[in-house]
Amino acid sequence: MENMLPVAVIGAGPQGLAAAAHLVERNVPVVVLEAGASAAAAVQEWGHVRLFSEWTELVDAAAHRLLEPTGWTAPTSGFPTGAQWIEKYLAPLAAVLGERIRYRSRVTGVSRRGRDRLVDAGRGEQPFVVHVTPEEGEEYRLLARAVIDASGTWATPNPAGADGLPAIGETGAAEALSYRIPDFRDREGFEGKHTVVVGSGHSAVTAVLALARMARRDPSTTVTWALRRATTGNAFGGGEADELPARGALGIRAREHVEAGLVSLVTGFRTERVARDGDQTTLIAEDGRTLTADRVVVLTGFRPDLSFLSELRLELDPTLQAPVRIAAEVDPNVHSCGSVAATGAADLAQPEPDFYLVGAKSYGRAPTFLALTGYEQVRSVVAELAGDHEAARRVELALPDTGVCGGAGLFDASGTPAGGACCAPPLLSIGRTPAAV
Predict the structure, then answer these.
(1) d(CA 41, CA 35)
(2) CA–CA distance, 254 with 236 (Å, rounded to integer)
């Protein structure tokens, strides 16, 4: 009877939907639990942003096979926005999956039936019990033979505070801060105003570029880009060394805007306090420097929400909060250019049997996740759950160099010129078959 229980997939984003497609293809019962009102609800929130991956890297192979009989045609070229990704792929996939997806259903806890995390006896023989709170109706429990957590990190952005905690006053000023890339098509909120962008990743670069274009049209629009690191070399990414050209181009253009004076770059700015005075927000750094702005956009990355997994036995890296066997591969403190390998079921396995973190959440706080990575993860995990251990072990993906430059030892160093870059030319991937999509 227990074998008839479904696999519970948490999250109907790109990786959650792909996991469901692989499970359907292998005739494994599946229930997808999505907190939002529709599939890819998080992607919808950044639907105005253009991806730096091409269409061929954004469609999962099993999903492609599931959609083909419906007359769906896969896009073959171009770089979609988040909204286009939903319209042309994710929404049609969700429609095919149909009632397997339960919307407006937030997962509030995962455990083993009749066992808290302290109990050893018979633990692995008990099904998972997933506590679900629907938007309407009463909380209920869903029994599952396995759980794939593809809930992502979008709902838990990092704060502006430099120590990983909200800066003093940040929580009270939260309504005046934006923790997502704004939709800059609404120019009224930014033109003729001073905006501070806090952060150094691709999201921050994207926001800086959009604001710089406004500043070029209207000199009364000013932009300050605040970096925590004392150097600027890592801020511009991999540039021409990035194997994803569209992403590398972001850093190249950002450097040009800084050098042209359209963007003021401030380094070593580690926010300690946030103060409000009327419509103005002031960031106060640990060294006493201040930045006062009309708008503040905080794009300092994301972190996984592990709160509803507290009764499970997890083995996570203490730094990244990622599964320990993949942490060394994705840690930006170790890999100066973020070169990573594909990961599968063996890398993602936890002390809690048949529980897997996949997608962006599996990378913890690392910023190097790609859709292709998640598709390979769910292919391998579903193969393992279906008993196809050979397919689970097989690697069917070669990943491009991520171009995310960090590296230990540069955080406090000064003197790196604005034109510096830490990325060497990308290395050839050896011993891995080409990507399936």
Answers:
(1) 8
(2) 7
